[in-house]
Design brief:
With 700 residues, the chain is α/β, with parallel strands linked by helices. The protein has 25 helices and 22 strands. The chain has a 7-stranded mixed sheet. A 7-stranded parallel sheet has the order 12-13-11-14-15-10-16, sandwiched between helices. 39% of the residues are buried. Bound molecules: adenosine-5'-diphosphate and magnesium ion.
Amino acid sequence: MKTLDTDISYLKGVGPKRAEMLNKELSIFTYHDLLHQFPHRYIDKTQFHKIAQLREDSGEVQLRGVLRRLTTAGEGRKKRLVGRLRDDSGMIELVWFSGVHWLEKQLEVGKEYVAYGRINSFRGKISMPHPEMEEVKPEKLKKASSFAPVYPSTEKLNTKGLDARTRRRIMAALFEKLSPADFPENLPAYIIKKFRFPSRYDALRQIHFPKNEQELQAARNRLKFEELFFLQLRLLQIRRRRDAIKGFPFEQVGDTFMRFYNEKLPFELTGAQKRVLKEIRRDLGRGVQMNRLLQGDVGSGKTIVGLMSMLIAIDNGFQACLMAPTEILAQQHYNSISEYLEGMGLQVGFLSGSVKGKKRKALLQALEAGELHILIGTHALLEPPVIFKNLGLAITDEQHRFGVAQRAKLWKKSKPFPPHVLVMTATPIPRTLAMTLYGDLDVSVIDELPPGRKEIKTVHKTENNRMRVIGFMRQEIAKGRQVYVVYPLIEESEKLDLQSLQDGYEALQREFPLPDYQISVVHGRMKPADKDFEMQRFLERKTQIMVATTVIEVGVNVPNASVMVIENTERFGLSQLHQLRGRVGRGAEQSYCILMSSFKLSNESKERINTMVRTNNGFDIAEADLRLRGPGNIEGTQQSGILNFRLADLARDGRILQTAREVAARVLDDDPGLEREQHHPIRWYLEKHGRQLKGWSRIS
Ligand code: ADP
Ligand code: MG
């Protein structure tokens, strides 16, 4: 059992110096670490390139030919060894800058070699520096019919003598030293049997030195499963352990909730909203802290679900709060919730960084005294001076990020139990991502839009259609509708971006002149008060066009707006585009989204735009986004180490993930403490390597 814990410096070919480099550069300390640093690709040792067909971008290749010449050039430290290799198609120069003396003795002109290395080109002349040389012996060639692993490396490792070749040799030495008995199983026999997985030893050997494609696939399958299985097992364990965290039992749904439902609710809830509310109610009543993620497409009506959950808290004698990522959005929530609750005798407060002085003081006092029922605001709510009398439920809206730090701050806000937490996402998250990123939370999904919504019509237009787009805007405005025109703004090119917004604004003013038309402008550089003023004018229909940067992206609700024109569409991400489009289609009118872009587009941009034109479904869009960009780039996931898988790919391995989660759940259902003998391998492995699994700090 101990062998895999052995320090790598004891391995042949490693030694203290290389060991230190592996520690530092790749965090490899033990045999186990080394084994789990998987090749990122393989060289097919059965394939040889023809010298005549080499090009400057051929990369790493394997050649087979006769060594024709071998001479040294230069003096002292600049001394190098130059050889020529010839095959039946041509000749290439081979150069070595180190180990010259030794190589001179090893290599023999006239003999046949396999040369392996990376093609270099200097002034149009192709050569191969530092090739790996192996003499061709007929019996050896047969044996060498396999893939050679290539490991992720760093510049430093490469220049300090830990290049691909050495790494491969070290791995080979490792496997020579180890036998199957050194690889204790970490999966129960019944699981291995059920999925026909190779043993742990075989899987690890085969992923480093596969004999063929099938072996490689089998090894990858098992190791991906392992990776996902242990993560899911941990997530499920955490989720089950959470069930032991006590929470305020909200046993009753009382007057406030019922009065709102019967007298104030301006529409019938959708089936999905009702179902989700039931899930939340059940959660809140259990006496266990709720940690629930509420997923729903843009416009699916998450807010009202949040609001009604807060009413349950109030009915049970508690306060509730709602946090939003931007001031504008928080303000809008405050306005609409105050309106919903008018005449209910409830006190709703607003707090953000911009609420100062006397106003702030009075608000904080009322909050602490318990006179406020609901507090709405930005994440300023989490700061220490904000003291609740008895916070029972905290909701964060339009936010993927609600990490450890925020959670910790929140927990300090209520005693003796932490408040119940409901996280509402901005846009849907792909299933695989949700299962991983939020695998420890309970998830509710609103998968139905309120009735009567017309599907937003989305079209793609380029500059030469500009006049027709303007004509269309005029038409819609003539019907009394309002139009958004959105420009991208990213920090790195803020100046340029603001300029193009300014230019666009001026061009629009020419097309839509005063006094017939009024145009609002909102961008991130404006003072909050000016922004609010402009937003307000648009909300009150005093202006017909809102020219804006992405500040309007999140949440803003103007049901009368029916056209969303997005400029430079190619510069937006998919989820951002979907968010933006979600700003229209909120009323009963047919709405439109016009994606403007330049004529020339990268394949990825085309794919994004096509996806937008093809579907309105946020869940489909999220899947496409995941496929296009990979999980690490999906909004809100960047800082989460939990997605740093060694092998698994959430865009492609959804089925393995689903299976791993199901198997993990079944194991825990049968044997929560992993006490049965058949589960000892799992327990042993978790105890040993649990901590190493990335990103667990976020959740535990
Ligand atoms: P999101 O899920 O994007 O946050 P909102 O909560 O802002 O969506 O709701 C979008 C719009 O739909 C709001 O104007 C809201 O009043 C309305 N709405 C929500 N639920 C329903 C419903 N069941 N029937 C009709 N309209 C609804
Ligand atoms: Mg919302």
